[in-house]
Amino acid sequence: MGLTLHNGTRKASKRDEKELDSDLLFREALEVGYQIKQHQSLSIFFFHISNAGIYSENDGMNHLGIRNGYTF
User: Fold this and answer.
1) 44-50: long-range contacts (C-beta < 8 A, 24 or more apart)?
2) Domain ranges of the chain
3) What is the DSSP string of 50-64?
4) What is the model's pTM?
């Protein structure tokens, strides 16, 4: 759990844009990973950002991804 600050559009001017209604948003995240070798890891992550219903518009955004890590 945490906060995120964005500099994107707060109000949508097009149909396919999200209305977040705030520059400061709440962020919830989950990540699960596996250490493949001594210096390499692989993980899958998911996070959601939104204004938590504080403002009238709250489309929110979900992100799902894979991360490949290498330690030098």
Assistant:
1) 49/4, 49/6, 49/20, 49/25, 50/20, 50/25, 50/26
2) 2-70
3) E-TTSSS----EEEE
4) 0.73
pLDDT at 39: 96
Tens-digit pLDDT profile for residues 3-37: 988 877 677 777 777 777 888 899 999 999 999 99
Q: How far apart are CA 51 and CA 45, in angstroms?
A: 20
Distance CA 48, CA 37 (A): 30
Evaluate whether 58 touches 50 at the Cβ level (below 8 Å): yes
What beta strand segments (E) does 1-72 contain? 2-5, 24-35, 40-50, 61-70
